[in-house]
Design brief:
Helices cover 71% and strands 1% of the residues. The longest helix is centred in the first third of the chain and has 44 residues. The protein is globular and about 75 Å long.
């Protein structure tokens, strides 16, 4: 009797497992064919000389050795790091500030949330073309406003010293996605923590510093990691802006906007150096992976969760 019951239970578990694998099979097949397969292929190509037309020939570590001797590779690293150092903290702070403002009980707050979120769902190409007009040194509205106060505006995207700061400003256009995540985190903070701090006599600033900010550190960690990955994957805006301003030259003016992904794209789809581009892709993966691991290793010192905060208070 017991043996028969065990067989039925095992059979039921087996049927449930089979049904589960059946329903996830479309995703598994898509992942293997469209993600894992190309990743493994690019890993192989990174050790070959491959130009699409001819068969790949094995060259070992030559692509990686050539990569670290390439001055344009280091220029793309420099531009990407410069952009990340400016755009990442600015985006985190601006999104957090907007979320704090839009978390207040004010009339029409839902409308304001929608207004600030809508730009993040617009096409990157259309938005970049709009900003090219805004940053135009002759007819752009920004330089016209600066002229009203006696400031001679720079060339922005056509100026090698101002091109990256201009792209940083453009990146703030999509701050709505970060803001929404912050807003969800703010609304998930337990109200009893604020009540307890009020009973202890904490003012608004003390409540923000002792309750709001610690409780938001997991969300800050999440946005930091996503922002880091996005900043190292920056491509569309730089591609549109540099090709429009520099007459089709990617990374212009004078390589000041030669982002890593832009240089990778050039090698892959303009020069058809697929082996070299694949090596660049895997180096980028390692860089982002190491920086992400560094963030997670440091998170134990500054990320707090609800149970830890309650124990501390």
């Amino acid at each position: 009797m017991l043996k028969q019951f065990d067989i039925r239970r095992w059979s039921l578990a087996k049927r449930e497992a089979a049904a589960g694998y059946f329903f996830v099979s479309p995703w598994l097949i898509g992942f293997v064919l469209l993600t894992l397969g190309p990743m493994l292929a690019s890993l192989y190509f990174s050790f070959t000389d491959y130009n699409i037309i001819e068969q790949p020939s094995w060259v070992g570590l030559d692509n990686y050795a050539q990569l670290f001797q390439d001055p344009l590779f280091w220029q793309s690293i420099k531009v990407t790091l410069q952009f990340s150092a400016l755009a990442l903290p600015l985006g985190l702070l601006t999104g957090f500030a907007l979320a704090l403002l839009l978390n207040q009980a004010i009339p029409g707050v839902r409308i304001w949330r929608t207004i600030y979120f809508l730009p993040s769902v617009l096409s990157g190409v259309a938005v970049t073309l709009l900003w090219i007009l805004i940053f135009n040194p002759k007819i752009g509205i920004i330089n016209q406003l600066l002229a009203l106060v006696g400031i001679d505006g720079p060339g922005w995207l056509s100026d090698p010293y101002w091109s990256v700061p201009a792209l940083v400003i453009i990146s703030l256009w999509g701050i709505g996605q970060t803001m929404i995540i912050y807003l969800a985190g703010l609304q998930g903070i337990p109200t009893d923590l604020y009540d307890a701090s009020k009973v202890d006599g904490a003012n608004a600033w003390q409540r923000f510093w002792s309750v709001t900010l610690p409780m938001m550190t997991p969300v800050l960690l999440y946005n930091l990691v996503l922002g880091l990955i996005a900043s190292f994957s920056y491509f569309t805006q730089a591609y549109i802006a540099s090709s429009s301003i520099s007459g089709g030259e990617l990374g212009g003016p004078v390589r000041s906007t030669l982002f890593y992904n832009l240089y990778l794209y050039q090698n892959a789809f303009r020069y058809f150096e697929m082996g070299y581009a694949s090596a660049m892709a895997w180096v980028l993966l390692v860089i982002v992976l190491l920086l992400t691991l560094l963030i997670f290793r440091s998170s134990s010192a500054w990320v707090y969760y609800e149970g830890e905060l309650r124990g501390r208070t």
